[in-house]
């Protein structure tokens, strides 16, 4: 299996943007901290401070040309999706946009807690508890349900694209990276789009139509990873990973899910379903007993023996019950 990068296809892309693209120098208005917040395939993200307000932001530098091709359309699509989701608190806020000779700079709300990835693989003292995961998953689903109601699919949901407002104390979710996002009602051809192998749904591997259910698969993989610290389909190489995905080769053993409530496992099983039509939707997920306050006390009857998460026996705080949480 060899997949090309997403590029040069217009289908499903949003093109209309409302944000004014500023051409005055970015550096006249922002002080760039030396600190790099992260980077992906085509972007570098740096911390910056707005001179007029002293407020911190994350500046995402997107190259206008990639591999010799003009990528303005991809960037406009990313901006348009951010604009369309600006009323949802769990989607990162877009503050301003600048254009230089080589880059478009997205000035984004800074999610200072970094990627949830770091706390999925951390030691027991820094890893998420199941209660943490429940709170964060509700926020992720709230954001994703919003996108889906607006006919937008993210298509690159993974721990590197889900950030936290703060790490300690554990803050709230900010969904970032809409570079692969598409509008469902105008998408026809998907061969060119592919996220990260570990998070990719079976229908993508089979060149079958993508849908909002494609995101739900990734969320299933994500929750598995947040709870266990293990990536369910990851093989020794790409081929093996793709084979695991297409065969839905998942380990639900008690050993892997030690100390995790059976409801959590049940929840994941509603998402890692081969047929996209049979997969739970974001709205359905939000009313699953695992996330429902009324059934939550059951969690505490499970012994918490695992070292990866161990605070299930702590009393529930009223804060984790409030929904929706404000940012
Ligand atoms: P790419 O499209 O290249 O993957 P992303 O938007 O995912 O770019 O940004 C790359 C990385 O930069 C992210 O994985 C994250 O670590 C960091 N990052 C992105 N946006 C922010 C933000 N608003 N606040 C803090 N860090 C960010
Ligand atoms: Mg990314």
TrEMBL record:
Residues noted as binding ATP in the record, renumbered to the chain: 60
Q: Which UniProt keywords apply?
A: Apoptosis, ATP-binding, Kinase, Nucleotide-binding, Nucleus, Phosphoprotein, Serine/threonine-protein kinase, Transferase
- Per its UniProt entry, which superkingdom is the organism in? Eukaryota
What is catalyzed by this enzyme? Answer: L-seryl-[protein] + ATP = O-phospho-L-seryl-[protein] + ADP + H(+); L-threonyl-[protein] + ATP = O-phospho-L-threonyl-[protein] + ADP + H(+)
GO biological process: one example? positive regulation of apoptotic process
What EC numbers are recorded for this enzyme? 2.7.11.1
The keyword Kinase belongs to this UniProt entry's keyword annotation: yes
Q: Which Pfam families match?
A: Pkinase (PF00069)
Subcellular location as annotated? Nucleus
- One GO CC annotation: nucleus
Chain segments carrying region Disordered? 301-327
Q: Which residues form the signal peptide?
A: none
Reply yes or no: does the keyword Nucleotide-binding apply.
yes
Molecular function (GO) terms for this protein are:
ATP binding; protein serine/threonine kinase activity
Limits of the Protein kinase domain: 31-291
Question: What family is this protein classified in?
Answer: Belongs to the protein kinase superfamily. CAMK Ser/Thr protein kinase family. DAP kinase subfamily.
Instruction: State the protein's name.
Output: Serine/threonine-protein kinase 17A
Q: Which organism is this entry from?
A: Neogobius melanostomus
């Amino acid at each position: 299996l060899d997949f090309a990068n997403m590029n040069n296809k217009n289908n499903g892309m949003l093109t209309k943007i409302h944000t004014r693209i500023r051409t005055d120098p970015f550096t006249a208005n922002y002080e760039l901290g030396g600190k790099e917040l992260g980077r992906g395939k085509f972007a570098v993200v740096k911390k910056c401070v707005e001179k007029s307000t002293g407020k911190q932001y994350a500046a995402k530098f997107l190259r206008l040309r990639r591999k010799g091709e003009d990528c303005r359309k991809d960037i406009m699509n990313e901006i348009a999706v951010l604009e369309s989701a600006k009323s949802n608190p769990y989607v990162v806020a877009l503050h301003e946009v600048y254009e230089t000779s080589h880059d478009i700079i997205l000035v984004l709300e800074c999610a200072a807690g970094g990627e949830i990835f770091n706390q999925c693989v951390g030691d027991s003292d820094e890893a998420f508890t199941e209660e943490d995961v429940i709170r964060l998953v509700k926020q992720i689903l709230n954001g994703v349900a919003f996108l889906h109601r607006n006919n937008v699919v993210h298509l690159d949901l993974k721990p590197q694209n889900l950030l936290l407002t703060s790490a300690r104390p554990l803050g709230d979710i900010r969904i970032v990276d809409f570079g692969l996002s598409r509008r469902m009602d105008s998408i026809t051809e998907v061969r060119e789009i592919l996220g990260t192998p570990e998070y990719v749904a079976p229908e993508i591997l089979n060149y079958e139509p993508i849908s909002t259910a494609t995101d739900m698969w990734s969320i299933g993989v994500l929750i598995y990873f947040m709870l266990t610290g293990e990536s369910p389909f990851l093989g020794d190489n790409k081929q093996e990973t793709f084979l695991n995905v297409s065969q839905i080769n998942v380990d639900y053993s008690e050993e892997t899910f030690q100390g995790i409530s059976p409801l959590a496992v049940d929840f994941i099983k509603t998402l890692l379903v081969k047929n996209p039509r049979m997969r739970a939707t974001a709205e359905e997920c939000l009313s699953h007993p695992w996330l429902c306050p009324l059934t939550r006390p059951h969690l505490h009857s499970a012994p918490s023996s695992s070292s990866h998460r161990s605070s299930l026996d702590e009393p529930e705080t009223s804060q984790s019950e409030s929904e929706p949480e404000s940012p």
